[in-house]
Amino acid sequence: MKRSELIIYNEIPENNGLFINPVVTIGNFDGVHAGHRKIIQKLISSSVKHNGVPIVITFKNHPRTLFRPESPCRIVTTAEEKQQLLHSLGVNHIIMLQFTRELSNLTADQFYNELLIGRLKIKEIVIGHDHAFGKNREGNIDYLMKLSEKTGIIVTRVEEEICNDKVISSTFLRDVIDNGNMDIAAMLLGMRYSLTGKVVKGAGRGKGLGFPTANVLPDNSDKIVPNNGVYAASIMFSDNSVYYGMLNIGYKPTFDDKTRTIEINIFDFNRDIYGETVAIEFFQRIRDEVKFDSIDSLIKQIKSDEVQIRKIFSEKN
Length: 317
Hints:
alpha/beta, elongated, six-stranded antiparallel β-barrel
């Protein structure tokens, strides 16, 4: 599938010659993980068969923001990241809907007949093994197969993808990141998990310990921050330069801090970067966050961490 300009639609458009033989898939696609990529591959192969256009219908906001607004959303990818990942897989047309109360109240019949057929005039719908749409999730595979018999629209169900004897899902991926299993996260994502944020002033203790750190405040508060602990990580700047370092997530219990922070000691680096926007990539979690009985014990452990993390990166290069 030729990768051309990415076009984003904020609503389902009327297909009056806009798309030729559209093939569509629907889902939140948080993370665009291996299970999602399997669906996208099928979407694209089906569109080639129809000599048509693959279209992804997804959401700007997670449905949880509507049904449980009091709970943190906890996403793997932002809307912008999701768009770019889908585009990288060959999808040039993405319909990004705002998940609203009105949308959630549409019946499966309304969504299918009025929007997918009436507006988009689809030729085929590709869905994941457990996907359902419409009010009360009534638009499941059995429902779609019955509608297919009436309308002639092809319905293709994509079977689940398995990792470590578990069905790959966004929930599974979130749990993996939560637990700091960054190698498994990278395998599911097809790349390393990352956070983008701004370098802000911290307490400044790292410099006094001989290990100055950059304190990174994530741009998106809904993005999952991995489990507390020490990580081998990289940091990329706006000029695309990349440095390695050791990163700590947590409350710095040795100093009885109450605020959770993300701090990275950048190897072989010495310049003022306050206010810069950076991207952090997580390679490997090496240990838990620990409360030390003395500053000397803390420094000794940090030196040991540095040796271990430099070894990790030397083996990867």
